[in-house]
Structure formats: C-alpha cells, structure tokens
Design a protein that fits this description.
With 195 residues, the protein is an alpha/beta fold. It has seven helices and five strands, in the order αβαβααβαβαβα. The protein is globular and about 50 Å long.
Length: 195
Amino acid sequence: MSVERIQQHFRDSAAVKLEALETLSMPIAAAIDTMFGALANGNRILACGNGGSAADAQHFAAELIGRFERERPGLPAIALSTDTSVLTAIANDYSFEQIYAKQVWALGQPGDVLLAITTSGNSANVIAAIEAAHEREMIVVALTGKGRGRAQDVLSDTDIHVCVPSDRTARIQEVHLLTIHCLCDGIDAMLLGED
C-alpha cells in the first residue's frame, strides 16, 4: 500500500471539510436550534439512514441517550434502523421503501424532529420517511451530499438541509459524522452552557 495514497485520503478529507466549513455552518446551527427546541419542549428526535448512514443514525441516538462529552440526563432519540423484527416485518409485508415511514407514522408526534441521512439524497425509504414526517407535523433535518438528490424536492421551507459539497460517498460520510458531533455538542452547549 502506498503511503502517498493514504496521505491523499487525509488531504481530500480535509479539503472537503474546509469547503463545507463555509457552506454548512449556518444550516448546522439552525439544526441545533431546531433540535434543542424540540427536546426542550418534550419532543424527541427520530433518525434513519441506510448502510453507513444507518450507523450514523445509531451513533447520533447513542450520543443523545447516553452522553456526548459531558455528563447530563439522557435525551430522547430513536434510531429507526435498529429493530430487525420491525424492519423485516415491514419490508416483507409492505416494501423496503416503507421501513422508516411506517415507524415515523407509529412513533412520530407533532413537534418531533426527523434526522434523515442519505449520502446520495435519493434513498427511497428515507424520502418516504421525510414525507411521513411532514404528515406527522415534524421538522426534518436532512444530511445529504452529491448535489442534494431527490430529497431536495420533498423538503419543506421549514426543514433544514445540510448538503455536503462532494460526490464521494466516503467524504460525505466523514462530514456527516462531523456534523453529528457538531449537533451533539451544540445541543449540549445549549442545555449545559458553553464549556
């Protein structure tokens, strides 16, 4: 393995993050305000995605329920990708496209937030979840990349779109993880004060 190839990954990742710094700071700040407002009002955050994005949804929920970097009471968050019985029942009885939308309908309440993660912006089941969230009067925070995809077409004016300026899935996922850490830190700072 070439050391230069490895170093190029680090350079590419840093370059995308620096470019995203300019374009994503404001929507991430808006997402923090929205999520904190929901949590402060007794609502919760549902999160979904596929593959690495499902892992990111689980990571986010774990950071809220447990803790991020400071001790605090757990905050209500649910990763919709974790219950295999629910996922396989919905996929079998309805369709894979409905695995998140059916859960949003069952668990989501007006004022809740859906964190919808799709690197391409085109995941049919995530888009269906966004539409279900709107029907449940929820606000959506969408993390995408690759030029926004179809998610852009279903988001409302009150939703928040964090679109990573890259076409490479690995780079998009790296910025999504950084965004998730920014969300967790921002929520904690609003809850506990800046450290």
